[in-house]
Amino acid sequence: MPTRLPVPKPAAKRLSLYLRECERFQEDGVACVSSEELGSCLGISAAQVRRDLSCVAQAGQRGVGYEVPVLLETLQREFGLAREWRAVLVGVGNIGRALLGYGPFRSSTISIVAAFDRDPSVIGSTWGGRTVMPLDALAHVVQSERVELGVIAVPTSAAQEVADRLVAAGVRGILNFAPVRIVVPSGISASSVDFAVELRRIAMDVVLGASGSTGVGEGTK
Amino acid sequence: MPTRLPVPKPAAKRLSLYLRECERFQEDGVACVSSEELGSCLGISAAQVRRDLSCVAQAGQRGVGYEVPVLLETLQREFGLAREWRAVLVGVGNIGRALLGYGPFRSSTISIVAAFDRDPSVIGSTWGGRTVMPLDALAHVVQSERVELGVIAVPTSAAQEVADRLVAAGVRGILNFAPVRIVVPSGISASSVDFAVELRRIAMDVVLGASGSTGVGEGTK
DNA sequence: TTATGTGAATATCTTCACAGCG
DNA sequence: CGCTGTGAAGATATTCACATAA
């Protein structure tokens, strides 16, 4: 049983983007795309697109291109996105509420099934159809709802503690919006998005006169 | 006059993080850090830290480490963050409001000075002390307030148009939260953050059994 | 003695260029 | 003939290891 062939890390980033564009092509009724087309709407070279896709499956047809439905399904299946993923959100402040109301998740295969907060004045309120529960209910919900992903949107000082709780509850992956690196046991995936860092990078690019770049975030082991 | 030595792109990403940690050390009253210490709180090797920092300035002292205030100032100055950067936000929906209420910007050298929306029912409301203005006022404000950065938090369908307006108004860098790549003229910096893509990457990592990674985003020319 | 800064070695990623299939 | 898939070449980025300076 061959383990999984090693998907280069930068390629994994791009595969999410191909998937997104594929969904768009699908909606628009486009039947077939070439590596050239797929790449150009993302600012990626055709050769790069082919190399990335080839490490996932031979989904293209020579002389023709990639059939959108096939490619879409291949990408989804290969990365476990064919099934529904369940996530919980911890921290219902500004960012948390934005995530609960975020449209593009709806059509996605990932859904936020529950939200938690420590603040009694927030507990019980409803956002995007989900009623905020007390943090103590976290472990129970993660287990009974078979939740696999956690989103952290609490203040910096509480981020690590929340991460620990999520891991203890059985979550397998974490997305963190607090501006700290969170440490998780090996075997758990985690990454961070920091708006301030993000904006600074743009400022840097402006100063340096650079014009292309790729978004940020921060990794964790 | 030597232009600017080429800062490797991945290094630029990390420099923002060093800056963030430096601010934290400064607040905590730490006087001096080694490359080892700075790296470990970010999950980055000491050698990597030294290499990154060396391409910006020789701010360290052999046998001792980096003096926090010196390093902080060096990083800020080298990347133009010593001065105040002004940004505008377009799109006061869920994400926009989260950004207007985002704490960590306060202490930062980047501030969102104005917010715009197309929707009359939102115009005139106040968030985080900023009253939402009509989109038509954009160009005027950007010019009179000497705004250099723009943040896009509008629906996908409007993102490119808003980007065009921002560029026309004179903005030099753009951070985009809509799940599309926006195209900007060369000389303008832009990058995107897509929550759904972000969460999917985590899901991928879980499936692939990977455990470390770095956040996403998407570049534009 | 300790921890930086950096040439050289290594590993990783991207692009080129073309063979091969539809 | 067009476009994929991929070895081989080229470009970047990371790590190693040590000379060097405080």
How are the elements arranged and paired?
The structure is a homodimer of 221-residue chains.
Chain A: H1 9-27, E1 32-33, H2 35-40, H3 46-54, E2 60-61, E3 65-67, H4 68-78, E4 85-90, H5 94-100, E5 110-117, E6 126-127, E7 130-134, H6 138-144, E8 149-152, H7 156-169, E9 173-176, E10 189-192, H8 195-208, E11 218-220
Parallel strand pairs in A: 4-5, 4-8, 5-7, 8-9, 9-10
Antiparallel strand pairs in A: 1-3, 2-3, 6-7, 10-11
Helix pairs in contact in A: 1-4, 6-7
Chain A binds a DNA duplex (22 and 22 nucleotides) through residues 8-11, 34-36, 45-48, 50-51, 53-54, 58, 60-66.
Note down, in words, how this protein is organized.
The structure is a homodimer of 221-residue chains. The first copy, chain A, has 221 residues and is α/β, with parallel strands linked by helices. Chain A is 39% helix and 19% strand. Chain A contains eight helices and eleven strands. Chain A has helices at 9-27, 35-40, 46-54, 68-78, 94-100, 138-144, 156-169, 195-208, and strands spanning 32-33, 60-61, 65-67, 85-90, 110-117, 126-127, 130-134, 149-152, 173-176, 189-192, 218-220. The longest helix of chain A is centred in the N-terminal third of the chain and has 19 residues, at 9-27. The two termini of chain A are 26 Å apart. Chains A and B meet through helix 1, helix 5, strand 9, strand 10 and helix 8 of A and helix 1, helix 5, strand 9, strand 10 and helix 8 of B. Chain A binds a DNA duplex (22 and 22 nucleotides) through residues 8-11, 34-36, 45-48, 50-51, 53-54, 58, 60-66.
